[in-house]
Design brief:
The complex is a heterodimer of chains A (258) and B (303). Chain A is of the alpha/beta class and 258 residues long. Chain A contains six helices and 16 strands. Chain B has a single domain, classed as Aldolase class I (TIM Barrel, Alpha-Beta Barrel). In chain B, the strands form four sheets. Chain B has an eight-stranded parallel β-sheet with strand order 3-16-15-10-9-8-7-4. In chain B, strands 5-6-14-11 form a four-stranded antiparallel β-sheet, with no helix packed on it. The chains are: A alpha/beta (258), B alpha/beta (303). The complex binds flavin-adenine dinucleotide, flavin mononucleotide (FMN) and FE2/S2 (inorganic) cluster.
Chain lengths: 258, 303
C-alpha cells in the first residue's frame, strides 16, 4: 500500500524542454521519500474539478525533490504549464503501484514512446549501465530527455517515425526485437497504447518479463471511484477489471486484455 | 462550537455530512487522509445481488464545473460486501448507509433482506438502476415502478430505508410521494443527471457507454430546487446532494429542506472536501449565532 498525501508544493525549477513540453521540479520531501519509479502524482489545475495524472520522472530523496515532465494536451495541462518557479502545485502523491525492480538483473530494456519517455528516467537512474533505453518519437521536435537518459544508461537508442532525428527510422519494436534475441532480463514500457501492445506481444512471444504503464481517465486517483477501469485477465484467463490508479498504472504485459 | 448533530429516522449523525455513494468506495482510500469518524456518515458504493463488472472504459469525462461518469454499478455483490467490507466499516464510529440497487424489485429486496440481518445503520435504495423486466427504464422514472420497488424492499427490512431519487423525471415530487406512500423512511436526492460529451476530432463519445451521469457544481442549482420541492411535498426527511463543494453550499441545501447532505464529486477535487465542509458549516453557524444546525433545516423564506 502506498502512503499518499495531499499537499501544495512549491515549484523550484521549470524548463521548456520541447515544443509544448515542460519539466517541473517540486520541493516535496515527504513525497519524494516515499516515491518509487512508475508511480504518479495527481495534480489539480486551479479552477478545474478533476485532477490530472502525471508520472514521476525523477526522484531526489536527498534534496526532497520530485521531477515531472508533461506535454500540453488540453486546458488542464495548459494551465499547469503556465505556472512558474515559486508557484505551487496541489497534488495527491505518490500514487499507484510502480515498476518491479530486479536488483540482480544484468540487462533490462526501457521502452518509451513520446510522452511515455519521462517515467523511464527513474528506472534509468536505478539500473544505470545495466539499462538500454529505446525511445520513440514522431519527429525531431518531439524528441526529449535523450541527454538525461544518456547520463545514466549504457545505451540510448532514439527512433523517429520520419527519421528526422536519432539513429533509427521507424518504430521502437525493430531495435527491441534485436535486443530480445540477445536476451534481456526485463522490459519496461510506457507510451501510446498501440506501441505498448506491440512491445507486449514481442516480449510475450520471446518469453521476456515485461511491465507496461497504462493510461486511463481518472477521477479520485486512489482506487475509490472505480473510474479508471482496465480489463485484465488472471493466471487462469478469467476476465477481471482492475483499476489503473490503484492496481496500476504498471501491469504485467500478460495481465492486460489488449 | 455549534451543535452539528442531526437525527434522521431515529439515527443520530454527529454532523450532517456524508460522502455520497460511488465516490468514496468503502472509505478505506480516504482513511489515508483523515479518520472516518470525522464524518457524519458514509454512503457505500452501490451493491447489487451479485458481482457486476461495470462498463468499459473510458468511464470518466470532465465537463464545465462537473463531470460525467459511467462506472455502471461495478461492485463485488452483496455477500462479498457483507463479509469483506461491512464488518470493518461498522467499527469506524460513523453512520453507515448501505447503498443498494438491482435490476428487479426481487433483487433489491433480496439484497435488503441480507442487510437486514447485519448491524448496518441504514439502507439507501438507488432507484436509478434500469429495470430489466420493464425493458430497461429506470425504476425511478415512473411512480408505479418506484412504488413497487420501494414496497418490496420495505417488506424485506425493518432498517431505516432511504430511497434515492433520480432527477431525470418530469415531476420529482410525484416520485417522492409515491415512495413515501410505499413505506420509505426518508428520501435522498439528487442522483446524477443524464449527459453526454463527444470528442469532435474522433467523433466518438468520450464515454465508452456513450452517455453518463452528470455530477458536480454544475448540478447544484438543480439539486437546491429539487430538494426544496420534495421537502415541501413529503413528511419524511430529505437527504440533499448534488454539486455541494463548500460549507455554504451545504447550508443552502439544508435551508432548502435537507436534514443531511451528501458530498460526491467534490471529494475528487479535494479529498478533504467533507471535513472542510463540516468546518465551514461550523464557522457559518458560529458567525451567525445559530446554536444548532437543526435550526436551519427548511428555513428558506420563499417570496
Ligand atoms: C498514470 C498516468 C500517467 C501520466 N503521465 C503523464 C506524464 O508523465 N506526462 C504527460 O504529459 N502526460 C501524462 N499522462 C497523461 C495526462 O494525464 C493527460 O495528458 C492529461 O490529463 C490531459 O489533461 P488536459 O487537461 O490537458 O486535457 P483535457 O483533454 O482538457 O482533459 C480532460 C479530462 O480528460 C483527462 N485526460 C485527457 N487525456 C488523458 C490521458 N491521456 N490520460 C488520462 N487522462 C486524460 C484529463 O485528466 C481530464 O480529466 C499520464 C496519464 C496517466 C493516466
Ligand atoms: C463516480 C461516481 C459513481 C457513483 N456511483 C453511485 C452509486 O453506485 N450509487 C448511487 O446511488 N449513486 C452513485 N453516484 C451518484 C452520487 O452518489 C451523487 O448522487 C451524485 O454524484 C451527485 O452528487 P455530487 O454532485 O456531489 O457528485 C455516483 C457518482 C459518481 C461521480
Ligand atoms: S480514478 Fe478512481 S478508482 Fe481510479
Amino acid at each position: 500500500m502506498t502512503n499518499y498525501t495531499q499537499g501544495v508544493y512549491p515549484i523550484s525549477e521549470k524548463q521548456a524542454i520541447a515544443q509544448d513540453t515542460y519539466s517541473f521540479t517540486l520541493y516535496c520531501p515527504a513525497v519524494a521519500e516515499n516515491a518509487k519509479p512508475g508511480q504518479f502524482v495527481h495534480i489539480l489545475p486551479k479552477g478545474y474539478g478533476l485532477r490530472r495524472p502525471i508520472s514521476i520522472a525523477g526522484i531526489d530523496k536527498e534534496k526532497g525533490m520530485l521531477r515531472l515532465v508533461f506535454a500540453v494536451r488540453g486546458k488542464g495541462t495548459e494551465s499547469l504549464a503556465g505556472l512558474n518557479k515559486g508557484d505551487f502545485m496541489d497534488m495527491i502523491a505518490p500514487l499507484g503501484h510502480g515498476f518491479t525492480l530486479f536488483p540482480e538483473a544484468e540487462h533490462v530494456v526501457l521502452v518509451g514512446g513520446g510522452i511515455g519517455v519521462p517515467p523511464m528516467l527513474p528506472l534509468a537512474a536505478y539500473y544505470g549501465s545495466k539499462a538500454t533505453v529505446i525511445s520513440g518519437f514522431r519527429s525531431f521536435p518531439q524528441v526529449i530527455l535523450q541527454e538525461d537518459l544518456a547520463q545514466y544508461c549504457a545505451k540510448t537508442i532514439c527512433c523517429t517515425e520520419d527519421g528526422s532525428a536519432g539513429t533509427v527510422k521507424g518504430f521502437v519494436t525493430a531495435p527491441l526485437s534485436d535486443l530480445l534475441r540477445e536476451g534481456v532480463n526485463a522490459v519496461y514500457a510506457c507510451g501510446p497504447q498501440a506501441m505498448l501492445k506491440a512491445v507486449a506481444r514481442a516480449c510475450i512471444e520471446s518469453g521476456t518479463y515485461c511491465e507496461v504503464s497504462l493510461e486511463e481517465r481518472m477521477a479520485c486517483g486512489i482506487g475509490a471511484c472505480l473510474g479508471c477501469a482496465c480489463r485484465t485477465k488472471d493466471a487462469d484467463g478469467n476476465e477481471k477489471y482492475l483499476h489503473v490508479c490503484k492496481n496500476g498504472p504498471v501491469f504485467r504485459a500478460e495481465e492486460v486484455q489488449w | 462550537m455549534a451543535d452539528l448533530s442531526v437525527d434522521l429516522c431515529g439515527v443520530t449523525f454527529k454532523n450532517p455530512i456524508i460522502p455520497a455513494s460511488g465516490v468514496f468506495g468503502y472509505g478505506r482510500e480516504y482513511e489515508e487522509f483523515y479518520p472516518l469518524s470525522a464524518l457524519g456518515g458514509i454512503a457505500t458504493k452501490g451493491t447489487t445481488g451479485s458481482l457486476r463488472t461495470g462498463n468499459l472504459a473510458p468511464r470518466i469525462a470532465e465537463t464545465p464545473a462537473g463531470m460525467l461518469n459511467s462506472v455502471g454499478l461495478q461492485n463485488p455483490g452483496i455477500d462479498a460486501f457483507i463479509e469483506r467490507e461491512l464488518p470493518d466499516l461498522l467499527t469506524k464510529d460513523t453512520v453507515i448507509l448501505a447503498n443498494i440497487a438491482g435490476s428487479t424489485p426481487e433483487e433489491c429486496a433480496e439484497v435488503a433482506a441480507k442487510l437486514d440481518r447485519t448491524d448496518v445503520h441504514m439502507i439507501e435504495l438507488n432507484i436509478s438502476c434500469p429495470n430489466v423486466k420493464q425493458g430497461g427504464a429506470a425504476f425511478g422514472t415512473s411512480c408505479i415502478m418506484a412504488e413497487q420497488v420501494t414496497a418490496s424492499v420495505r417488506k424485506a427490512t425493518t432498517k431505516p430505508l432511504v430511497v434515492k431519487l433520480s432527477p431525470n423525471v418530469t415531476s420529482i415530487t410525484d416520485i417522492a410521494k409515491a415512495v413515501e406512500a410505499a413505506g420509505a423512511d426518508a428520501v435522498s436526492l439528487i442522483n446524477t443527471l443524464l449527459g453526454m460529451r463527444i470528442d469532435i476530432r474522433s467523433r466518438r463519445p468520450v464515454l465508452h457507454n456513450n452517455v453518463g451521469g452528470l455530477s458536480g457544481p454544475a448540478i447544484f442549482p438543480v439539486a437546491v430546487r429539487m430538494v426544496w420541492q420534495v421537502a415541501n411535498a413529503v413528511q419524511i426527511p430529505v437527504i440533499g446532494m448534488g454539486g455541494v463543494s463548500s460549507g455554504e453550499d451545504a447550508i443552502e441545501l439544508m435551508m432548502a429542506g435537507a436534514s443531511a447532505v451528501q458530498v460526491g464529486m467534490a471529494c475528487f477535487t479535494d479529498p478533504y472536501a467533507p471535513v472542510k465542509i463540516i468546518r465551514e458549516m461550523d464557522e457559518f453557524l458560529n458567525t451567525n449565532h445559530i446554536a444548532s444546525v437543526r435550526d436551519i433545516i427548511g428555513t428558506v423564506q420563499p417570496w
